[in-house]
Amino acid sequence: xxxxxxxxxxxxVADFQxxxxxLGFVIxxxxxxxxxxxxxxxxxxxxxxxxxxxxxGIVGEATWRAxxxxxxxxxxxxxxxxxxxxxxxxxxELQASLNALGFTAGKHDGIFGFGTASALRDFxxxxxxxxxxxxxxxxxxxxxxxxxxxxxxxxxxxxxxxARRAGGRSWLFFGERNFRSDFLYQAEWQTYLKEGVLTRMxxxxxxxxxxxxxxxxxxRDRAADLFAWLEE
Length: 232
Prior knowledge:
Elements: H1 11-22, H2 38-51, H3 61-70, H4 89-100, H5 114-126, H6 137-146, H7 154-164, E1 171-176, H8 179-182, H9 186-195, E2 200-205, H10 215-221, H11 223-231
Parallel strand pairs: 1-2
């Protein structure tokens, strides 16, 4: 492709300026619409540095490909194993979600290869979704429902729930290293279960046995029940 650099004015410049703005980069308003000025050049350099590309401020084939790949978000297109492999930030997000749930997709490299395809099929099989190896609408919705959000202060929030006597069922997945030393709020959890504040609880202590077990393993084991809860 033709190298696009400072001083150029045409539609391709407006295209990658829009992609950069979508990614959160700031370009001087006077250059938007197709003018490759100093602000656009600086922004291209910042993008190249972030992506580990040669930092020259010029949009060549590698930079253009990275701009296109970084523009995808999960759900924009179906993801599947293909030749050449699909690449993009949507693939990276899919890999991160699968790994967080215990389905090993490998490193978050944004490349939909054999490892990602295998992890996706494993996820679909565990949730009784059509095992087609395609991250389409149904699979992405299931991922969104099961995605773990880990935040501090869980104990106080459960206490608040108890005080409000909030309706609905609740299921706690708790994980730490050791049962004896790290089972935080153990007495409280047991009380909440007895009183009905918690409906169900599953725990995982990764260092108490030879084969390490994590929260995501418990979630995967209970995937069918958990997904049914989220569908209610």
